[in-house]
Design goal:
InterPro entries: Flavin_Rdtase-like_dom (IPR002563), Split_barrel_FMN-bd (IPR012349). This is NADH-FMN oxidoreductase RutF, flavin reductase (DIM6/NTAB) family. GO terms for molecular function: FMN binding; oxidoreductase activity, acting on the CH-NH group of donors, NAD or NADP as acceptor. The protein is mainly beta. It is built from five helices and 14 strands. The longest helix has 9 residues. The chain starts with 17 loop residues before the first helix and ends in a 13-residue tail after the last strand.
């Protein structure tokens, strides 16, 4: 079937297939601090790396949630890698807690200090990115109307990697066992990899 996205509800879908088609998506487990020092930890599956030189990451928030507001106030955040072992605590941090209530405490997690930014990372994560804010943009649709979606761009200024996951000079992605969002309530986990060499030249 092919359908016009604005009329998908007429086709009887229980949920929009969009998030299941654009999958798997890495999870940006974002920690941000407010100007008052309040801590927010929340997972975003609209997240990805968008540049390697310099390292730049992006996440998008549906509605202007605390993470976006806090980053707007202080200009810094961290992204902790979500693994299968951390899946349940990650899910707990998605709870709609009152502003200023610490998701680390709610999920039984510990904070580990960052080196180059003030927001902490999740203790026990195999890797984390320390970021400084580049921009926050409210999204618009084809008609130019503002929609309640905010995109945050951050430049990575520091990278934490647990030494246990460095093998032969490379980060052991499969060994870290990260998970990704696949739409609905579904997730995937990385347990093995395969390699394809790019064509020469170009």
């Amino acid at each position: 079937m092919t359908y016009y996205s604005a009329t998908k509800d007429d086709l009887g879908f229980a949920h929009d297939p969009f998030k299941a088609i654009v999958a798997p998506r890495p999870i940006g487990w974002i920690t941000a601090l407010s100007a008052k020092g309040e801590v927010n930890l929340s997972p975003y599956s609209f997240f990805n790396a968008i540049s390697s030189r310099p390292n730049i990451v992006m996440f998008s928030s549906e509605n202007k949630k605390d993470a976006v507001a806090f980053i707007e106030e202080t200009g810094e955040f961290t992204c902790s890698l979500v693994t299968k072992a951390l899946a349940q605590p990650m899910n707990l941090t998605s709870a709609p807690l009152p502003r200023g209530e610490n998701e680390y405490i709610h999920a039984g997690l510990e904070m580990a200090p960052s080196r180059f930014v003030k927001p902490p990372r999740v203790a026990g994560t195999p890797a984390a990115l320390e970021c400084k804010l580049l921009s926050i943009q409210q999204l618009r649709d084809l008609e130019g109307n503002e929609v309640p979606r905010w995109m945050v761009l951050g430049q990575v200024v520091g990278t934490f990697i647990d030494d246990a996951f460095v093998k032969d000079g490379r980060f052991d992605t499969a060994g870290a066992n990260p998970i990704a969002r696949c739409g609905y309530a579904d997730y995937a986990e990385v347990t093995s990899l395969f390699s394809i060499q790019r064509p020469a030249g170009g």
